[in-house]
Design a protein that fits this description.
single chain, 233 residues, alpha+beta, six-stranded antiparallel beta sheet, two-stranded antiparallel ribbon, 7 helices, globular
């Protein structure tokens, strides 16, 4: 009886083990088959480039540049223009609220930059101190190679009077601060002018400031100055 029980148990164990082994082998076989099938599929892929001859050639009109070409040329021209613009032009374009391309007379703005904040000194004509007519005279001589009389009244008398709407860079602007023409500056455009102020020395001011609007007499142009020509040095 014990012998028969042993045979039955052993047979059951062997059957279970064999069944488990078959399942393992089946899983391995399935993975192997799947792998082989996957590799076969991947190896079977063939990628070919589209023939160039199938692309329809773009129709172009002779003598007319396309939009992309125009943009490319425009960008190149703008880059070149920007490279030519100096930091001095950027600085005074901001101070004068003007387009940087309008700040062309580099000699003029270099002169202003060198004299900016120089203290006011009545009768002075150098960096130790300068008055309004001394500054306008020195500016005209250095930038426009024109000699002016020494006083604001004399500069007013020799200049050609112009309407306010026709003022240009390099014109003189005159003020009646006390007893007639007693102050002068040089116009820069957009209502701005440079001058030697009694309280602040060499500065840039605006004709629309209430003080200068009140005392403004008019503008004058010195004969012999071509202030419409761009000067970039």
């Amino acid at each position: 009886m014990k012998y028969l029980l042993f045979i039955f148990v052993a047979s059951s164990i062997f059957s279970t083990t064999a069944s488990a082994q078959r399942r393992v082998n089946a899983v391995k076989l399935d993975k192997t088959y799947s792998k082989a099938r996957s590799v076969k599929f991947i190896e079977g892929i063939e990628i070919k480039a589209s023939p160039v001859s199938n692309v329809q050639e773009e129709t172009r009109v002779p003598g007319i540049r396309d939009l992309e070409t125009e943009r490319s040329i425009s960008k190149t021209e703008n880059d070149v223009s920007i490279e030519k613009i100096s930091s001095l032009q950027f600085k005074y374009a901001q101070l004068l609220n003007r387009n940087v391309e309008e700040v062309k007379n580099i000699n003029l703005y270099r002169f202003i930059d060198e004299w900016m904040d120089t203290r006011y000194r009545y009768g002075g004509s150098d960096k130790n101190g300068i008055d309004c007519s001394g500054l306008s005279g020195e500016l005209m001589r250095s930038v426009f190679t024109v000699n002016l009389p020494r006083t604001a009244r004399e500069q007013y008398n020799i200049s050609s009077k112009i309407d306010n709407d026709n003022m240009q860079e390099g014109d003189l602007v005159f003020f009646n601060i006390s007893r007639g023409i007693s102050h002068v500056g040089v116009y820069l455009g957009n209502n701005y002018f440079v001058h030697a102020s009694l309280n602040n020395g060499v500065i840039i001011s605006n004709l629309e400031e209430p003080y200068y609007t009140k005392h403004f007499v008019g503008a004058g142009r010195v004969i012999g100055i071509d202030n419409t020509t761009a000067v970039i040095n």
